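Contributing new records

If you add data, match the layout below exactly. Sequence lines come first and carry their own label; structure lines follow with theirs. Keep one chain per record. Anything else will be rejected by the validation script.
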Amino acid sequence: MINDFQTTKVYFSSWLPKVCPRLWDAMHDVLQKEGVSHALLEDTADIWCRDYMPIQTSTNEMVAYIYRPDYLSTPKMQKYITDTDLMVEHIQEEYAGVDIKRLDLVIDGGNVVKCGDTIVMTEKVFNENSDWPKFMVLDKLEEAFGCEVVFLPWDRTEEYGHSDGIIHYVGDNRVLLTNYDDFSPAYYRRFRNQLERKFEVIPLSYPVKNKSEHNWAYINYLQVGNLMMVPQMGIPEDEMAIEQIRSIVPEMMHVVGIPAMEAVRNGGALNCVSWNIDASIIQDSATIINFVSPLQYGAFTEEVIYKMLQLRLDFQLPEELWHDINEAFSYYWDIEIGLGNLFDLDSMFLSIKHQLKKKGRILPDERLWRVVNEIYDFISQIPGVVLPVD
């Protein structure tokens, strides 16, 4: 099962910049600075792409399902149902190596929370598939996802029935539980009792006098790799949520706040408007491989080195970030080394990191080090290139 910390790329509906411009600008800026690959999905019917995009179960496998939620069943609302077959076509065009299974059940992706080797859903899935006996729905889910499925009761006052508004997985068999105790102690106890059979449960809480009706939304944060973007609504609970999440997750996680009220007032938050995947899906790259060699003509160029990095790295390196890295490398090569000065990997790494920081670019050290090493390994094999090392 591909969990959030294993994902490398995030997609959003092309509607998001139009419907939630402030939220989009904030997320776009953070993703660019962190060097996280991101893109927009075309042909979507609304901003809630978590609900209709396939579930990635392994690097090269996804599960598509029937997206026909009851809250979009009226003639007026049916225009907001995204064509999932068209989404699958787009995915297969971009990722030729992906195997997409078809699950003949009605599901919302927002009701699928991946927790290690387990999936957590609310029991609304049984109502949406009432033509099937419960045991058959369970069998179909576990066969498609290849793991155990844990069910939480469905709070009927919440029409969507999404588990991503209740919990979020934080690793090491631990789940965060939203502050349900503030507005439904009975459901809180039922959720906690069910989850504690499998996980260590860490509840969020906000000790303020006048609690906001929107403070459920912090649980619906977006995580891509080591980056965690937490909704912020301009309320006293904002900083409390950030502090609690930071205290729970590993120190390597970068937790940042994102103004999210544009989405929250419409019933969702950051996980709802995103679709994050491990983008190292095997593609038919034989043509590229044939033409990316240190022996080829023009090997020491920005374009060829970028193609090489795309093939060798196990994470996505956005083109605009690569352009800045290449400029920083060119400065190091042409100016700092110059004619006859000594070259070493440490100085190259520090120089590029410094140049990126001046542009407001932040790439985790371990990833930048990988890039530096791959560049060095490639150019050292190019005939005629002499590295003036000590």
